[in-house]
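Q: I have 331 residues here and want to know how they pack in 3D. Can you give me a structure?
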Amino acid sequence: MSEQTFNAMVLREEDKKTKAAIESLTFDALPGEDTLVKIEYSTLNYKDALAVTGKGKIVKSWPLVPGIDFAGEVVETSNPKLKAGQKVVLTGWSVGEKYWGGYSQYQRVRGEWLVPLPKGLTTRQAMMIGTAGFTGMLCVNALEDAGVTPQSGPVLVTGAAGGVGSVAVAILSKLGYSVSALTGSTDKHEYVKALGAREFVDGPEWADPPRPLEGQKWAAAVDTVGSKVLARVLAEMNYNGVVAACGLAGGADLPTTVMPFILRGVKLLGVDSVMLPSKDRVMAWNRIVIDLPGDLLDGITAQTVRLEEVGAAAEAMLAGQLRGRVLVDVN
């Protein structure tokens, strides 16, 4: 088996720059982990785009096969909780950053990182959801755990046309929430409206730093953008409002004050999908099957690309030219 070759995207560092190329590998080249998976699909997430283009400090070791998630079938394993032929999903655990990831036709990973594919999902559908959609589900869970209900008032989703935002809009809408959306451009409104958004807030003020407190507008929010956008979200929250923050598409800084927290009791909840315990992953994946409308998956997935097309798609994603999810068919 070690003589068989397969294709993978490999990132190498040359003159302190990231070079991405499709290479032919053997099984001996893969990491020495306990489970070999034949990958069927991966996805392009914002973090992947930063890694592949070298425009973000994502890669922690060289060379690296990027791709922070994948779905496929177990080929062989020494993990007692898994068996050959089993369909599995992987998201997080620093795969595609520190450990070799999903942009490969085969990969070896730790079996403890894998989640059994939920009943009712194909591997393709699982990656149409992917890390971004999984994170969107976690954001909805965080709002609910904090006591937010459809009766609490309107919920704002920023970056609503992106991977996380698209799924968050679709799930919140299905659950009965009144969803408002910030997309950054009006040409994405029709797409996000089809997911369930009721109104859009793409005004010029979102490019400017807010005052410490603005008028109260939102019972809750899911923020994927960070920076000035998150600062304005916090300033516009209702008394006791809740914000689930999971992204930094607009920057990692947060130019705000303590005013929303100490004068309005606003709660800022951080949502992480990378190191989430396995039992919570299983619960979230099983809930996605129920709460994400299946008929919207095709609409959320904007395009499917081959391994050799990932680089161009990554550039387009960082330029804000894509909407929804990008599926990577590694085969």
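Q: Anything worth noting?
A: Residues 17 and 290 are 43 Å apart (CA to CA). DSSP finds nine helices and 15 strands in the chain.
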